[in-house]
UniProtKB/TrEMBL annotation:
It comes from Novosphingobium tardum. It comes from the Bacteria. Residues 149-185 form the DUF7065 domain. SUPFAM superfamilies: AttH-like. This is DUF7065 domain-containing protein. InterPro entries: DUF7065 (IPR055493).
Length: 354
């Protein structure tokens, strides 16, 4: 899975890019980590709109005591804050709002090591940590879903530092993932422009449980992104193609990796798959099986269970996952993205009693 020179990322990619005059061009920086002993997952996510000169950012932490913004361990979002032309992403303090300042990001080693700092005294919340990459950033293959044209990479890292939660200082020391994506988005999110005579035509492999059949309807914008790694970085990452799942619920996986003994192998989409089971009350996954093969012929089987969940809108969900990986315990996430109306249809079928 080594990058060819044309696909490799360099020090210049620590800066912001601008590829078009599209007002919806977007560039993100995303940081995630977890604190397994406390069932805590945490995100920092900041999409920047260079042609609108604004940024929206969110910081949130969740545990098993509440999934919505009012009940999460911490949640704050700043929308469309003004940003100057070409801010230096290598050393930046993001704009805040009336509630307080934003977070700061400083590059320590190009492409590899970063320091992030944030404080919200009114909530007794703070973050102070470094993300040290375990490998150079890897680009997902261009021309394959879900990133057909926009450059995108994920990077595993050792995240070390501190979280202050409700005034309590909590140690951070584990594996985290960061990613970057940039380029035109072509306007607000919209479902596939393809028209269908009926909903059944949206399903590639009809049959099976009705809720699973609805789940794999095509053209609904479904994305499910999962990853899990042990402390030494052994693990996997990839996207499940629910639209191509079979009637039994096994969905192929692509655009990801197996990592073992410090070596990456790209997922073989013809031999890599995931199956999840959903809670009929929430509609969210409860546990998963993952059966993977990479382009070097290495295999990895893993089973994961949800530990805690968060949902901003009540349908799409991010979940902290505990994974059994090659005889050891790993941690990661399930990111399950839905169109709201599609999710409701699936959940109605999942709750049906007759």
């Amino acid at each position: 899975m080594s990058d060819t020179p044309v696909l490799a990322f360099g020090p210049e990619d620590d800066c912001y890019h601008q590829l078009s005059d599209d007002p919806y061009e977007t560039e993100t920086n995303w940081w995630s980590f977890n604190i397994p002993e406390r069932k805590i997952g945490c995100w920092i996510h900041a999409p920047y709109y260079p042609n609108r000169k604004t940024i929206t950012w969110r910081i949130f932490a969740w545990d098993d005591e509440g999934y919505d913004p009012a009940r999460m361990a911490y949640y704050r979002k700043v929308e469309e804050a003004a940003m100057p032309d070409a801010p230096d992403l290598r050393d930046i303090a993001f704009p805040g709002d009336k509630a307080g300042p934003g977070y700061s990001l400083k590059m320590i080693e190009p492409g590899m090591k970063y320091h992030l700092l944030y404080e919200d005294p009114s909530r007794g919340f703070a973050l102070d940590f470094t993300h040290a990459g375990l490998h150079r950033p890897h680009r997902f293959p261009p021309g394959k879903p879900p990133f057909m044209q926009t450059p995108h990479f994920d990077q595993l890292g050792h995240v070390e530092g501190w979280m202050t939660l409700r005034g309590e200082r909590i140690r951070i020391d584990g594996i985290g993932v960061r990613d970057r994506t940039w380029g035109p988005r072509g306007g607000p999110y919209a479902a596939s422009p393809k028209t269908y005579a009926n909903d059944l035509e949206r399903v590639k492999h009809p049959g099976g449980a009705r809720w699973r059949e609805i789940e794999r309807e095509r053209g609904r914008g479904r994305i499910q992104y999962i990853f899990g790694h042990r402390a030494d970085g052994t693990g996997f990452l990839g996207f499940a193609r629910l639209q191509d799942a079979d009637a039994d619920g096994w969905a192929p996986m692509n655009a990801g990796w197996i990592r073992r003994d410090g070596e990456f192998g790209g997922l073989d989409a013809s031999k890599s798959r995931m199956k999840s089971w959903r809670n009929p009350r929430t509609g969210w996954s409860t546990h998963m099986e993952v059966d993977l093969t990479d382009d070097m012929g290495r295999t990895m089987r893993s089973e994961g269970f949800v530990v805690s969940s968060m949902s901003e809108a009540g349908y799409g969900v991010n979940q902290l996952m505990r994974w059994d990986i090659d005889g050891g315990i790993g941690w990661g996430e399930d990111q399950d993205v839905w169109n709201g109306k599609h999710f409701v249809r699936m959940l109605d079928a999942l709750k049906s009693v007759r």
